[in-house]
């Protein structure tokens, strides 16, 4: 069972940059997709960005507007989310997720049901 651990959250100011990191307990397979989701208070969990481990294909939510970059480090087994020009509306708990088993293929990789492993989340708070 894959275990995911996020780090890098905290309190930042409007316009700052922030880098989140997710460490996987074992190396993902090439077909696996790793992603970042976020959930603000009272809102549903939403997709932010994803990356296919094998070939590095990336996927982004429309709302990131080029402010976010997802990357992976195969040697470290980490997936990072670089966030630039953060806004107060980016305030949320950010979760790392892994799309690993065949059953998840029934669902879009842009939905939480498309992932079967989750980290505990890291809080990001952007002050205005």
Question: How would you summarize the topology of this molecule?
Answer:
Elements: E1 4-7, E2 10-13, E3 18-24, E4 33-39, E5 46-52, E6 58-60, E7 68-73, E8 78-83, E9 92-99, E10 117-118, E11 122-127
Task: Describe the protein in words.
It is a single chain. The chain has 128 residues and is mainly β. Helices cover 0% and strands 47% of the residues. The protein contains no helices and eleven strands. It has strands at 4-7, 10-13, 18-24, 33-39, 46-52, 58-60, 68-73, 78-83, 92-99, 117-118, 122-127. The strands form two sheets. Strands 2, 4, 5, 6, 9, 10 and 11 form a seven-stranded mixed sheet that branches. A four-stranded antiparallel sheet has the order 1-3-8-7, with no helix packed on it. A hairpin with a 4-residue loop joins β7 and β8 (78-83). It is globular and about 40 Å long. The model has no long low-confidence stretch (mean pLDDT 94).
| CA gyration radius, whole angstroms | 14 Å
Number of β-strand runs: 11
Distance between the termini: 40 Å
Task: State the low-pLDDT regions, or none.
Answer: none
Tally the helices.
0
Coarse structural class? mainly beta
Helical content stands at under 10%
